[in-house]
Amino acid sequence: MFRKAKSKLINWKATSNKALLVTGARQVGKTYIIREFLKEEFGEDNFIEFNLIENELAKTTIENSSNSEDLLFRLSALTNKNMIKGKTIIFLDEVQVCSNIITAIKFLVEDGSFRYILSGSLFGTELKDIKSIPVGYMDSFQMYPLDFEEFLIANGLNTNVLDRLKTNFEKLTRVDKIVHSKLIDMFHLYLIVGGMPSVVKKYLETNNLKDVIEEQNDINRFYRQDISKYDENNNLYIIDIFDLIPSELNNQNKRFIMKNLNENIKFNRYENSFLWLKDAGVALPVYCADEPKTPLILSKSRNLFKLFHCDVGLLASMYMDNNLQIKILNKDKDINFGSIYENAIAEELVSKGFDLYYYKNNKVGEIDFLIENKGVVIPLEIKSGKNYKRHNALDNLLVDSVDIPKAYIFSNNNIEVDGNKVYLPIYMIMFFEKDQIKDMKYKVDLSCL
Q: What global pTM score does this model have?
């Protein structure tokens, strides 16, 4: 499958001499895409892979080695491939089980004999210290399930159609009616299948939603097992929170209500459990911002948030309605599509590097999402029904705040512009991109001193 992560791997190869860590939740395709990259860019004989869960000796070797020379000597004894300095690349998978991987990789990079890629899910807590690694030794990025654009390509959509759609997005010109209708159908399919590679593969092989749901249920079971395995002190709290995500999103305000966990317990008792799910990549918290002003992080409310699933297909499979998937395809009016639509949007934005917030104010009302881009706050409203032009809170916000130049409303309808309100088809969230930091060269002239 086409994955955008491969371009990040290729860029790392071309521009960096550091080690690379690829993180993300289980089953998002980290190991597969790294192997494909290594085969294509280095050749089958020029990379060595050690899975630290399956290969207990490799794990023990890393943990017990006294220095880089000793470690490399021991690793060479565990492979039947020649380790050639300056040519061989070493892939360490499932590194979260190795307690001193951070120290070990620092010494290995300093040695400079080989290049290194590490991969691991954030299940467990070993990788939480990754932020303490000196920037001179390791690059990193996080992988997510297939986004909607990757899903379309996996399903065979011609890239020329995507190019034309992007032009529509950039110029705000209406999409061809037939193309628009098919893209809406594909978006609804994405709500059901989601972006987990094994689930997408199963759908492409069988086109059978029963097989899709069974694969999704297996992944959700794996997640619950990992929670039980890796956090013995708090796993019951974490499992409770994980299981409540669908019902909490289905509430009218979609916020996580603490009393649904325990009427008498305080937020700080559960806080680490929420953070654990976030760090594991399983859940995506969207915090309330007290003010719609940049930088939003300064007005972030710590204990008011919505909690989305990392994959909308897995979320859909967790709902108790056995016919939900068929109802989505049939656009059944009895379904609350709002939470499912919002989950898909949250996934897309997070995978593109956006920090997500929502806004609620007694005077204004509630705005689904706030994001920051190019130094301004941008409100986003997600509409799943026919009344997509009914958005009182958004209208109030645009009147109340002079600092917000434009707002976007995503719905099942075609492109339309009404003053500072831009209406976009729900699928066009795939074209939202975070503004990249550009070179800003500056030098103070000290010659006069």
A: 0.90
